[in-house]
């Protein structure tokens, strides 16, 4: 079926209208808005100009290699990379993390059943890496008050099978910087690699150092840090599709580079998971990074940081709500007391035009609300505080969202290992989420669904979520 230009534009606009806004500062997760129209324009221009170029072969498209090397150099200087460091540009934080785990695993062929030591707050990308790459995750509880990794417990978890130890700067869920110094020291003492996940903090924390000299150390300046990931499509405010993975030396990177000459086609030579790789995102990142420049990144970082601290202070005055941990960066995590629940507050905020992200409980860590502050959100912290207060009051009036006990019992009886289509369909029906054709219908308000999932163990949540994505991702008839 063909469509003319106008029809295509209209159809795209109509589909896009159902999405969250990417600009304007009202979406406090997933998107990063510098508020600089010129940065967006130059990024889009470069994205379009390089969309069809291919990073598959650096000799055919030397411009892309040049831009990647430039970005790796700039990123390295931001995070105190040592002489002789090396890096790659990947499609995002998850890919950078997968590559860091792959490199660590394959550098230790002597270890038969490799493990990595993770604080419980490490990003889910490490669980994906564990699953894909068959590296067993050893989870270590974080400090229940500060939500920071516990260095002694992490050190104690390292054994002869450990190939990687991980710290976050900051963690996504709570926005706190792990104590990288003792963690990296313990890893180094055991001869194990240490990765710092600065995917979300890597481009913002360095720009806050001048105003916050007390920021705890988390870069390559810390002895024992062997690799570090930082995403440009977050606080470098570039279009999606760009992250940097840095290694303290080219040697440490070797085990995730890949070449194949074992087929009769072109020689395949990749630094990352992708082979054909659009030059669009890297060109856009190169353009935006050079357009914004260090001074403006500093003022954007300060704006987002000030807004984060202002909101944290305002939350102190909202009955029922508190800050889960004092924020070290530009992310805020909020927890509700027994009078209400974060899932209803999230729904209420959406009604008021704000997307704040619900996060479920894990072990002793309660469910929270996550807010990522962009520079463009900075002007709105008073408005957000007012709407959070109103949303919390409404959530208190309705009381904590709870699923019907029969529904929780029905879900809890499911064995995640054997969950089949008919059981899943029956559960959807009981939860009121099944359309006439048995298809999944998402409700307007997510609190009851989130409360149900929150009441279940993570393995069962995962099995149900896989059922959800399986139902959602089906061909259009
Ligand atoms: C700390 C951290 N690590 C990793 C990631 C994964 O990044 P991506 O979504 O680009 O794959 C994120 C994303 O928010 C993050 O905050």
From TrEMBL:
Q: What processes in GO biological process is this protein linked to?
A: carboxylic acid metabolic process
| Keywords of this entry | Aminotransferase, Lyase, Pyridoxal phosphate, Transferase
Listed GO MF terms: aromatic-L-amino-acid decarboxylase activity; pyridoxal phosphate binding; transaminase activity
Domain of life the protein comes from = Bacteria
List required co-factors. pyridoxal 5'-phosphate
Give the family, as the similarity comment puts it.
Answer: Belongs to the group II decarboxylase family. Sphingosine-1-phosphate lyase subfamily.
Descriptive protein name: Aspartate aminotransferase family protein
Q: Which organism is it from?
A: Terrabacter aerolatus
